Amino acid sequence: MSDSHDTPRMASFEEIDQVLHHHQSFVLLSHVRPDGDAIGSQLALGYSLIAAGKNVRLINEDGLPENLAFMAGAELIETPPSEPLDVEVAIALDTATKQRLGDRALNAASKAKIWLNIDHHVSNPGYGDLNLIDSTSPATGQILYQLITALGLPLPAETRDAIYVAVSTDTGSFQYPSTTATTYDLAADLIRRGLDVGTINSNIYDNHPYRRLQLMCVLLNSLERTPDGKVASWEMRDQTRIELSLTPDDSEGLIDYIRAIRGVQVAVFFEELSDEKIRVSMRSKDRRYNVCEIASEFGGGGHALAAGIRMRGPLEDAKALVLAAIQRRIDSAGI
Ligand code: 5GP
Ligand code: MN
User: Fold this and answer.
1) How many separate domains does the chain show?
2) Which residues are near ligand 1 (CB < 6 Å)?
């Protein structure tokens, strides 16, 4: 774990309750290139607050990705308006640093008097006025489930389904080691509340666009592995994005295929972005190879077993730097 910042003080559920209770207007935000936990967290808390009679706007820098458009109530997710919103409270969800909310989203929320920061990233420095960060939680959606049920807030169908999507996607379908009995209890409770497991899983996992598999062909052709077999990586050029008309969500989760190779400890996905930056996505199977710490060396962050970086290109340079940093970790771990 990185010690580059002091551990922020955690807000109690009661303190958060006070803020929710005594204010009427809220903007809920999540990180750029949102995933299931980001959008799921916005919809989960958003629909709960709406059912409690609050005025709520759900803003994301990049809007709603196509792969999550099936989610009940997803039409409330908006891209940022050009003028700041008249809201009292901003709530950042699932977002490790304030900057990762995006410039336009930050501008939209700039009139908020109070910031809540609810997240599960170990690298989160606690940029809110009130911070609820639980790095043991597998998903921000699980923290929200605990908050909503503890405070007795409404849990409408949109919230129920959104919590499931958030938790299922951030645990790799209830597989990663951060998945606990609490997580399965949560899922069981959502099913008792009427969640349709078959339909929602089919919408999440069996509904990919054809171009995603075409992308997979390109990635497989770039697959590389270190001689000891511990590190595997693949890469995507910006040209591929153009040729296949890809959207950012098309590559979501593909890294799990190389993470799953026997012997691989660290999996890396290098993606050339249109702004000449490189997005690096890393996964580890073993906490002794902490990819959040490796990402921190380059200004990135995330979790011990899943982390990311945005860094300067060209791709070859970014790749050489990151693979060397991983190799240093593996050598120093001595296992
Ligand atoms: P992914 O590889 O799925 O994009 O991200 C894995 C994890 O790392 C997520 O929890 C995500 O929030 C975090 N992450 C990804 N990219 C960055 C980045 O550029 N900066 C920081 N601080 N975290 C990142
Ligand atoms: Mn998350």
Assistant:
1) 2
2) 31, 96-97, 100, 121, 123, 281, 300-303, 306-310
